[in-house]
Amino acid sequence: MFKAVINEAASKSKVFGIPSKLAFDSLPTHDPYSDESESSSENESRKMEAECGSKKAHVLNKTGTVMKEKSRINECRNNEDIASLKIIELSKRIRELMSSLATEQNKSRSLTKHIHLLESELKGKSDGGTNSPPVRYNNRSTDQGDNSVQLKSLQEKLAKYEQSITELKNQNHTFKNELKAARKVLELETGEAITNLSMWLKTIERKNDVDFNGTMKPGVQWRGRQQQIVLLKARLRSLEMQTQERVMHEHRHSRSDIDGSLEAGRLTSGATTLDVEDIICFENELNHQECNRSVTNRDQMSLCSKLKNVNQVAQLEKENETLREEIRVLKNRKTNWKTREQNLTLEVKNLKAQAQCLLNKSNNDEELIQSLLEYQKKLQASIQQELDKQCTMENELRKKNDEACSVQLQHKNEIEKLQVNATYQRQLEQEVRPTRGSMKTRKTRDSNDEKGPNSEQRLHELISREYSERAIVGLNVSAANIVSKRIQELQSAISDLMSELTAVKSMSDRMKDARTEDFTILSQIVRQLRECCSDEKEE
Q: How far from the centroid of its chain's Cα atoms is residue 315's Cα?
């Protein structure tokens, strides 16, 4: 930069070996087309070309760095990791909002239940107040004493109703306890697990076509366990009575036979028939009757014992059958409980494994989230650095634009100075060659015509071929060659600078477009986030 400033100062002091401040009063006596002036102008032109080449290289390097930065920004923009991070954050936010919504719903449900209970209590109290006999007022304006009496009466009624409600609650509680006890007793009696009495009764009604609320259907012979026990007891009593009646009947029949034989003996006995044979026969008959009695008594005792044994055996068989059935039921229940226990143990193991998997997954998710957050922070830092670099590059580009504008102005000044030098040379040629006066008038006209258009038009005119032809007209062959070469070099430099200026302008426009695209993308992301938040709030 310091060298450039020195070169600019030197160029301001001298342009192509000609001083910027021309002393027209004291004209030089030597020839302006000498070799020294040509060598100095060539050296200065070489210096200018070297400076232009270095500036071109610097501008190209800067444009390359800017393009690299743009490609990096586009890569960061198109990176899918940022989108995945945003999706994870949004999913976590949705989960939190859903959990809070569920808690709020549970709270609202509990509050609505509490409100319904309070409303029902208020309705019951209001119904109790309305059922009381209406009080008729003779006049609208009553005393405060009457109001206080009515309030006291209403309070007493409320207290009574509250007491009745508490009593009913206590009764309900006792009934519930009694039902629980009855259910337990039924479970012990029946050997069945009764979860709900109504369902159990309905199943019995469906199986046996019984209606416990009304009468049984015709043709149905279902009886409960207690009824069966009572009937069996009555049947046993009837059987015992029948056996006793049979025994008594047989005993009476045997007695009647003995009495008949005694009476016959008495009738046949007498003084005429008192023989030994008759007495022996009578004794034999008595012995036979006694034997028959003993046999009948033994038979009766054996029959009673057999009947009792039969009844006992039947009862024992029934009890054995019931016990076997209960044992079978208990075995089935035991097997069912074992299978259920095995299934439950397997389920518990599976649930433990699932819980362990979920814990591992949650730990992995937390690690992934932490790593992604760290990566996000790094990306944000890198993006911030890239943005800072972009800002610095923009500032440098602005500086380069300013430098290019200053260089353009310098070139314009140099061109004007060249024009002044050309006019000065023409004046000298007019002094040396008076025949060239007509050419001077033409160039003055051309210079006056060129002052009119704008800077861009002037640059285009300077680059045009007509300008070089106008400048060469009226010069010698050697001077025309030198001037034409110099003008061509300057025209090429001006065209290069113009192309650089257009490239810089296009780069600035591209940077503006990229900024607008970034702003639109950020605005779309913000809108989507706001829409998601609004949808979550509405849900």
A: 69
Handedness of CA 419, 420, 422, 426 (dihedral sign): positive
**What is the reported pLDDT for 274?**
40
Task: Write the Ramachandran bin of 16: left for phi over 0, alpha for psi from -120 to 50, otherwise beta.
Answer: left
Q: Give dist(CA 436, CA 429) in Å, integer.
A: 7
Average pLDDT over residues 471-492: 74
> Minimum mean pLDDT among 12-21, 30-39, 157-166, 416-425: which range?
12-21
Angle at 127 between CA 125 and CA 130, to 5 degrees: 110
What span, in angstroms and rounded, lies between the C-alpha atoms of 493 and 204?
Answer: 113
Question: 372 near 85, Cβ under 8 Å?
Answer: yes
- Please name every residue paired with 14 in a beta bridge, in sequence order, or none if there are none: 19
* 399 within 8 A of 508, measured Cβ to Cβ: no
Distance of alpha carbon 310 from alpha carbon 315, whole angstroms: 8
How many Cβ atoms from other residues are within 10 Å of residue 31's Cβ? Answer: 11
Give the number of C-alpha atoms closer than 13 A to the C-alpha of residue 306, restricted to the C-beta side: 7
Structure tokens at 267: 């009738």
Q: Which of 117-131, 475-489, 500-514 has the lowest mean pLDDT?
A: 117-131
Tokens of 191: 């050997």
Q: Quick one: which H or E segment has residue 100?
A: helix 80-131
Q: How far apart are CA 221 and CA 274, in angstroms?
A: 71
Give the Cα separation of 383 and 386 in Å (integer): 5
**Residue 300: per-residue pLDDT:** 62
3-state secondary structure at position 253: helix
Q: How far apart are the first and last CA of the chain?
A: 65
Higher pLDDT, 285 or 167: 167
Nearest to 250, CA basis, from 295, 292, 300, 305: 300
Taking the C-alpha atoms of residue 86 and residue 528, their distance in angstroms, rounded to an integer, is: 11
Strand partners, 19: 14
| b/e code 469-504 from CB counts within 10 Å (16+ = b) | ebbbebbeeebeebbeebbebbbebbeebbebbeeb
Interatomic CA distance for residues 297 and 310, integer angstroms: 19
Neighbours of 459 (CB within 10 A): 21
Domain residue ranges of the chain, discontinuous segments joined by +? 225-347
Q: Calculate the alpha carbon distances from 95 to 98, 108, 352, 536 in Å.
A: 5, 20, 24, 10
Q: Are 243 and 296 in contact (CB under 8 A)?
A: no
Collapse the DSSP code of 104 into the 3-class scheme (helix H, G, I; strand E, B; otherwise coil) and give the result. Answer: helix
What backbone phi and psi angles, to 5 degrees, belong to 15?
A: -120, 115
Q: What is the dihedral of CA 97, 99, 100, 106, to 10 degrees?
A: 140
Bridge partners (DSSP) of residue 15 are 18
3-state SS, residue 392: helix
**For 225-248, what is the mean pLDDT?**
77
3-state SS, one letter per residue, for 331-359: HHHHHHHHHHHHHHHHHHHHHHHHHHHHH
Distances (CA, A) of 238 to 232, 241, 244, 248, 313: 10, 5, 10, 15, 18
pTM for the full model? 0.21
